[in-house]
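User: I need a structural model of ATP-binding cassette domain-containing protein from Flavobacterium gawalongense for a docking pre-check later this week. Nothing fancy, just the predicted structure tokens so I can convert them on my end. Input:
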Amino acid sequence: MDKSLLKLIPYTKPYKSHIIWNVVYNILYALFSTISMLTLLPVLEVLFGKTKIIEKEPVYTGIGDIKQFGSDFMYYKISELTKENSIQVALLFVVLMVITTFLFKNLFNYLASHHIMHLKNGVLRDLRKSMYNKIIELPISYYSEKRKGDIMARMLGDVNEVQNSFFSILELVVKEPLTIIFALVTMFFISTKLTLFVLIFIPISGLIISKIAKNLRAKSLQAQKESGFLISIVDESLGGLKVIKSYNAETNFKSRFNDSVTRLLNLSNSIGNKNNLATPLSEFLGITTIAVLLFYGGNLVLVEKTLDGSAFIVYLTLAFNILTPAKAISKASYSVKNGLAAAERVFEVLEVENEITSKENAVDKNTFDSNITIKNINFKYEDEPVLKDFSLEVKKGQTVALVGQSGSGKSTIANLLTRFYDVNEGTICIDGIDIKDMNIHSLRDLMGLVTQDSILFNDTIKANISLGKLDATDEEIIEALKIANAYEFVKDLPLGIHTNIGDSGNKLSGGQKQRLSIARAVLKNPPIMILDEATSALDTESEKFVQVALENMMQNRTSIVIAHRLSTIQKADLIVVMKKGKIVEQGKHEGLIAMDGTYNKLVTMQSFE
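Assistant: Understood. Predicted structure tokens for ATP-binding cassette domain-containing protein:
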């Protein structure tokens, strides 16, 4: 059994009853498919005046005799009706019998489809939930090497493909094979010679079809990867539209997109050609079998006279009845190959191990009492060393600023404190407890993070700010906005805090977005605040507003400020100057200026008053 198939089984467990009922109704459907064809025999015999006359009501003698008893009882009823009424009533009786069996056949088909629909849709929902939970839980580091578009393609396209294709397996192992088996058993009863003849053709057809289906799975995998790349291009294009237009790079992006679309077209055509071959090929092979049957069976009826004409017609309808499920099986087997390729990609994400998680029996820490100590830490992004033997202590209530040129490792400190990444060596402790021993949620509850890029969501101002405190009242939100120096522009918006701010907050200016980010951190009210270059993307006027907001927020709080603009950190209790992952100077603003070293150079370069 395929590994992907085995991995999918746990997802079907909550829908066990639907699987059982689907199997039951499929068995009944297959049975009535054959019975409905058999009921044509008495119709034909009445029409051709060849009905057996049975005067005496047959007696049931046991299961071994059921076929004979059923046949005799039906002919007895027809004989009775013909005797008491007319041949028309007998004909009406057998026609009603045909209608009833076809009604049951289609009713069971509907009920089987009803249950498989609940199974498919339920598993689709559960797979999507698992995928989304995994996407949210995976560490930030996972996405630094993965394309967002590929993840989206797996979650949307591939999961759908699993739903559409995979459950063809149930039809593949129950419905269609049983329909064929029941029909073949009945055909054996009618004519063993003819049926042995049919059985020679079935494996030959199967062999031809499987040859064509070869390498379909590999092609499907390629197509699904290409879809991921395509979504990535669209995602990046929408995110970077200003840059694309300002650099006149439209042609470049269009050609990247066109190349990808063309590759996808060729793959889809190749897969489609093979899929499209499934039905006509199996039909042609089936009709060839039927044609040979007509010739051979016609001889048995006309020349050898070993087979009755009406029985031969019913035999042919049963042979035709095999064709539909045979076509469905060949189509489903192609489908399953696509589904297996998609499932492989879905489980690839679901099985990624999340290395940054809470330990068992992790410490729940809800207060910050004395200090943060960073001791001899080393850290590298893949093979690129960023921090080397770095140590620092931040006491409660202190504002510590980290400064230095780009690439000196300042922002990495923020990523390590919040456990977006884990240190390679050394320890980071809060009140003497290693953050790796703390519950990751309680660690992040102690911290508020304001980043350089103000990340906002397409929702109301209220929803964006209350992210860390979902039960916040309007008054608390307004209070946080006032501290963040943002209420002055929010109150003028048409719906105030209930105004939708658009995709990524794009209805607002950079300074306004950043002040909302600060309000979000203020409302969360954590004891430790991490400001990662919170003003570097702003113009001077916006920066003044934001700077006031930051100073309001940092009162009576422990703050770690990663600063690019040095004007924002002159009042810090401790300024740590970094270069290539190491501390080169530390002290207060005046003391560092007096040292006339790296800090003084940075200040002079920025030449503020």
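Before docking, keep this in mind: The CA atoms of residues 208 and 281 lie 9 Å apart.
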